[in-house]
Amino acid sequence: MSRAELTWCKSSYSGSQGDDCVEVAVTEGAVHVRDSKDTARPGLAVSRDGWAQFVRFATHR
Questions:
Q1: Is the pTM of this model over 0.85?
Q2: Which domain holds residue 18?
Q3: φ, ψ dihedrals at 35, nearest 5°
Q4: Distance CA 47, CA 45 (A)
Q5: What is the 3-state secondary structure (H, E, C) of the chain?
Q6: Local confidence pLDDT in tens for the 61 residues of the chain
Q7: Whole-number Å distance between alpha carbons of 1 and 61
Q8: How many domains are there within the chain?
Q9: Which of 30, 39, 53, 61 is the most buried (most CB within 10 A)?
Q10: What is the CB neighbour count within 10 angstroms for residue 32?
């Protein structure tokens, strides 16, 4: 699946003014993360397990 075919969702933690936004796209094998203001760059892809660990860590701080 190419990056153009991914379905991107904006993080609920992103700013309400449209700035400082993080978008994610979930596939069977990875979670893709990008800056919504710079969609031309490739962003980051992590395993679904790695993403789950990150979210658990970030929400329990």
A1: no
A2: 3-59
A3: -85, 125
A4: 7
A5: CCHHHCCCEECCCCCCCCCCCEEEEECCCCEEEEECCCCCCCCEEECHHHHHHHHHHHHCC
A6: 666 689 999 877 666 666 678 889 999 999 999 888 888 887 899 999 999 999 899 888 6
A7: 34
A8: 1
A9: 30
A10: 19
